Amino acid sequence: MPSVLPDGEPVPDDGRLPEAALAGAAGRDLGFYLHVPYCATRCGYCDFNTYTATELVGSGGVLASRDNYADLLTDEIRLARKVLGDDPRPVRTVFVGGGTPTLLDPADLVRALHTLADEFGLADDAEITTEANPETVDPASLAALREGGFNRISFGMQSDRPHVLRVLERGHTPGRPQECVAEARAAGFEHVNLDLIYGTPGESDDDWRASLDAALGAGPDHVSAYALIVEDGTRLAQRIRRGEIPPTDDDVHADRYLIAEEALTAAGLTWYEVSNWAASPAARCRHNELYWRGADWWGAGPGAHSHVGGVRWWNAKHPGAYAARLARGHSPGAGREVLTDEDRRVERVLLELRLGDGCPLSLLRPEGLAAAHRHAEGGLLEPKPLAAGRAVLTLRGRLLADAVVRDLVD
User: Fold this and answer.
1) Is the Cβ–Cβ distance between 56 and 38 less than 8 Å?
2) Which residues contact 343 (CB under 8 A, 6 or more apart)?
3) Any bridge partners for residue 399, and if so which?
4) Which of 231, 181, 227, 263 is nearest to 398 (CA)?
5) Tens-digit pLDDT profile for residues 368-400
6) CATH number of the CATH domain containing 102
7) Alpha-carbon span 319 to 210, nearest angstrom
8) Position 357 in a domain
9) Strands of 305-308's sheet in order across
10) Of 26, 192, 238, 267, which sits most exposed with the smallest number of CB within 10 A?
11) How far apart are CA 324 and CA 332, in angstroms?
C-alpha cells in the first residue's frame, strides 16, 4: 500500500493560507506539480500513491476516473488561483508525475497545462515536464505533447537488463526507453531524462555498467540514478522478508554510485545534485531545483504535497476522496503544517547540501560550522568552497551525505 500521509492541522475548506505565507511571494519562484495516480500495473518496489483500477469511486459515489481526471486537475488549479489571490507570479516550472501520466490522453495533459496558462500565465522560459512510461507513448503521442507545450520529458528506464526489470516488476521491454529518446527528439523535445535504479537484488556491477552504457548511448541530456529503497508494505519487501531474494546492501549501493559517477562524467554529464547529472546547466531539472531551494509550489492531485511561504499541506490521498472534496467546492487538502524558522533552516541545510554548489555556511550554528571544518579535514567536504563560505560535498562525501547533514544541523 502507498505510504501514509503525515498528521497535521486541518486545512480550511476554502484552502486559504495565512497572510504571512503570501508575504514576499513576488520574490520567490512558483511551480506546479500535477499528480496522475493511475498505473496499468504497480511495480513491486513502488510505494507511490498510485492505483491500477480504471475507475475509482469515492464517498458519495463521486467518480475519479482517467476519463474525467483532467477536469479534477482543472478544478484544483482554479482553486489555487483563488487561494493565491492577486499573486502576480507566472508559473516557472510544471512537472506532471505519477503514477503514469501518459496513461491519460495527451489532450487531457495539454488541457491541464492550458488551464495553468489561462489562470496564472507561464513564464516565457517555463520548463514543462511530464514523466512517461516507455510502453505508453508513441511518435504520435509525443508529437501531441510537444505541440501542446511540453518541452521536457522523463522516461522511466530503471535498467536495461531483463532479469533486473523482472525483479522490479517493470513492464517495459529492454531497449524501448532508448527508442523513446529518439522519438522524443524527433518530436522536438530538447531536454530528455532517463531514470535509472541501482542496487536491485540480483544486479551485478556488469549489469549496472550495461544499463548505464545503454542509457548514455540513447543520448539523453539528463540522467537520474537512484539507489533502490525497499519500502515496507511493497511486494519487493515481502519477497525479501520471505527469503525469495536477497536484501539490498549499502556497500553495493556505494560501489554502484561510484560506477555511475565515473560513466556519466566520462560521457560529459556533470552532477548537480547527489542523484542527478546533466549535460549542461540548461539541461538541469529546474522544477526539482525549485524543491531543493525551498521555493513555492502547488501540488495538484490525490496525495500531492504543496509548499507556499513556509506552509506545507497535502491532499486527500484516495482519488475518490479527493474528487468528493472538490465536488463540494472544498479544498482537497487533508492536513497542513506551518514551518518554524528553525524547521526551514534545517530543511535548507538538508536539501541544499545535496546540490553541486552546496549550502551557505551562514545556515549553520557554531556546532554545525565546527563539524563542517572537521569534515573538510576528513575529506567529506571540499576545502576551497568552505573558505568561500559554502559547504560542498566531495565524491566521498556524497556517499555519506546523510551522516554529514546530521552533523551540520546538530
Assistant:
1) no
2) none
3) none
4) 227
5) 999 999 999 999 999 999 999 999 999 999 999
6) 3.20.20.70
7) 39
8) yes
9) 270-273, 276-278, 222-227, 191-198, 152-158, 122-132, 91-98, 30-36, 296-300, 305-308, 311-315, 333-338
10) 26
11) 8
